[in-house]
């Protein structure tokens, strides 16, 4: 955005994409309702689809979600490998 100009739609879109870290939008849990993914991170009712990311965190961390997301991804990979090996 140029100095002194009014923000346009593209500028706002850019800020939203860069500045947001969506977390906690989906619910993970043991009970089928209302959780979207099961404890093994599989999407309920959809074959061969997992959600492994900040969106399934039950509580949003107070700092950056980066480390928590990396730990979740590591655990998701472990769960996936266990399932493939079985």
From TrEMBL:
Pfam families documented for this protein: GMC_oxred_C
Recorded superkingdom: Bacteria
Domain annotation Glucose-methanol-choline oxidoreductase C-terminal: ranges: 22-73
InterPro entries from the UniProt entry: FAD/NAD-bd_sf, GMC_OxRdtase, GMC_OxRtase_C
A GO molecular function held by the record: flavin adenine dinucleotide binding
Family of the protein in this entry: Belongs to the GMC oxidoreductase family.
PANTHER family documented for this protein: CHOLINE DEHYDROGENASE, MITOCHONDRIAL, GLUCOSE-METHANOL-CHOLINE GMC OXIDOREDUCTASE
Protein name (database record): Glucose-methanol-choline oxidoreductase C-terminal domain-containing protein
Classification lineage: Bacteria, Pseudomonadati, Pseudomonadota, Alphaproteobacteria, Sphingomonadales
């Amino acid at each position: 955005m140029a100095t002194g100009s009014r923000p346009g739609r593209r500028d706002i879109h850019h800020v939203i994409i860069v500045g947001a870290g969506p977390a906690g939008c989906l619910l993970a849990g043991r009970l089928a309702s209302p959780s979207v993914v099961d404890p093994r991170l599989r999407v309920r009712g959809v074959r061969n689809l997992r959600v492994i990311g900040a969106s399934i965190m039950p509580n949003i961390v107070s700092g950056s979600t980066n480390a928590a997301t990396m730990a979740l991804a590591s655990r998701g990979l472990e769960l996936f490998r266990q399932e493939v090996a079985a």
